[in-house]
From TrEMBL:
<dbReference type="Pfam" id="PF00480">
    <property type="entry name" value="ROK"/>
</dbReference>
<dbReference type="InterPro" id="IPR000600">
    <property type="entry name" value="ROK"/>
</dbReference>
<dbReference type="InterPro" id="IPR043129">
    <property type="entry name" value="ATPase_NBD"/>
</dbReference>
<dbReference type="InterPro" id="IPR036388">
    <property type="entry name" value="WH-like_DNA-bd_sf"/>
</dbReference>
<protein>
    <submittedName>
        <fullName>ROK family transcriptional regulator</fullName>
    </submittedName>
</protein>
<comment type="similarity">
    <text>Belongs to the ROK (NagC/XylR) family.</text>
</comment>
<dbReference type="InterPro" id="IPR036390">
    <property type="entry name" value="WH_DNA-bd_sf"/>
</dbReference>
């Protein structure tokens, strides 16, 4: 297995810390930057000079046209040149590959999707190679590729197990790197989303932050001290053993009354089909529930209560500053958000502070963007620390 070999520039540790601070929080005045990093004005000038000369950092106009005075002369805030590098991110599902190109700040500038007609690793790698050629056209500063996969990923390189792709021990990073010639990093898709939201999204600047995803499965990511907490059981289906209602339904993909059996899209569809004999899409079930159709409404209300219990328990034990709810199942909040909120309150201390629950309506391109952030991290931090 080859290591992911990439670095931003030949930067000193001090220069790298300045660049990362501006990347994540910029534009920043030199005064604010020096305060954040506990640097003297002279040290900051020494560290920023090569970053500006290399084109990585640039002085930008102050908001409102006001510039600060630094040692007797005007000084403008510093920001990164987001377009100085491009990154590709892929989200691989059971039947599609979603691809995006982002800037250094993870803004999506291009999208390209292709159907996945086979799970044979060699064929998937060939498809990723073709998509990379198309996405890379006209982007000579392409710096790396990130890939998000539903499954257990080892060393950010090998897909140890993926139930959706039926893979085991596939060295995906090495294979794609050999096909494209670019640095490649692979990660569990939920972990990639958590990293993206921690660096550039809802969790930026927070010490304790949780991402909870609902959709085909249930995903969970925890951030403490501003860093994602990795764990050996990542994507091992913890939700099927998280019992929220011991007398709840038993489905093919979960223990009785588990979060998975109550809350995932396949099992919501299964419950409605078992009760009515009709196969409905998730969107149809939500519409019928909103219209008061008895069985869909009952299933959706049970799912909403399960979600409320899950969020309350996370809040009680983790004490997060924010919980981000994402995934293709978040439409549940539009139909039964009040039930979710009532259930959260019922399972919290009456005097507990309200949970900051943010819902993100997203598609698989957001998950692909999360994978691109993995490549940004490898470039910025270096392979050893990403």
């Amino acid at each position: 297995m080859t290591a992911v070999a990439a670095s931003w520039l030949p930067l000193s540790p001090g220069e790298r810390s300045v660049a990362i601070e501006v990347l994540l929080a910029g534009p920043l005045s030199r005064t604010e930057l020096a305060r954040r990093l506990d640097l003297s004005a002279g040290s900051l000038t020494r560290l920023t000079k090569p970053l500006i000369e290399s084109g990585l950092l640039v002085e930008v106009p102050e908001a409102g046209g006001v510039v600060e005075a630094r040692q007797g002369r005007p000084s403008q805030p510093l920001d990164v040149v987001a377009e100085s590098r491009s990154f590709i991110g892929y989200k691989i599902t059971e039947d599609m590959v979603y691809g995006v190109v982002t800037t250094l700040r993870s803004e999506i500038v291009a999208r390209h999707d292709r159907p996945l007609t086979t799970h044979e690793p060699a064929e998937v790698v060939a498809l990723l190679g073709e998509m990379t050629e198309e996405l890379a056209a006209g982007r000579p500063r392409l710096a790396g590729i990130g890939i998000g996969v539903g499954g257990l990923v080892e060393d950010r390189a090998v897909v140890g197990e993926s139930p959706f792709l039926h893979w085991r021990d596939v060295p995906l990073a090495e294979l794609v790197e050999g096909r494209t010639g670019l640095p490649v990093v692979v990660e569990n898709d939920v972990a990639a989303l958590v990293e993206a939201e921690t660096w550039f999204g809802a969790g930026r600047g927070l010490d304790r932050f949780v991402v909870l995803t609902i959709g085909a499965g249930i995903g969970y990511g925890l951030v403490l001290g501003g860093n994602r907490v990795p764990y050996a059981e990542e994507d091992r289906g913890f939700g099927r053993h998280w019992i929220v209602d011991p007398s709840g339904p038993l489905t093919p993909d979960g223990e009785r009354g588990s979060a998975v059996s109550l809350l995932t899209i396949p099992n919501i569809r299964y419950q409605v089909r078992a009760a009515t004999g009709r196969d409905r899409t998730y969107e149809e079930i939500l519409r019928l529930a909103a219209a008061g159709e008895p069985m869909p409404a009952r299933v959706i209300q049970e799912a909403a209560r399960a979600l409320g219990i899950l969020v309350a328990q996370i809040g009680n034990f983790v004490l997060p500053q924010k919980i981000l709810l994402a995934g293709e199942g978040v439409g549940l909040m539009d139909v039964a958000g009040e039930t979710v909120a009532d259930t959260i309150r019922a399972h919290r201390h009456p005097l507990a502070a309200p949970i900051d629950l943010e819902t993100k309506v997203s598609d698989f391109h957001d998950w692909a963007r999360g994978a691109a952030v993995l490549a940004i991290q490898v470039l910025v931090l270096g392979a050893a620390d990403a």
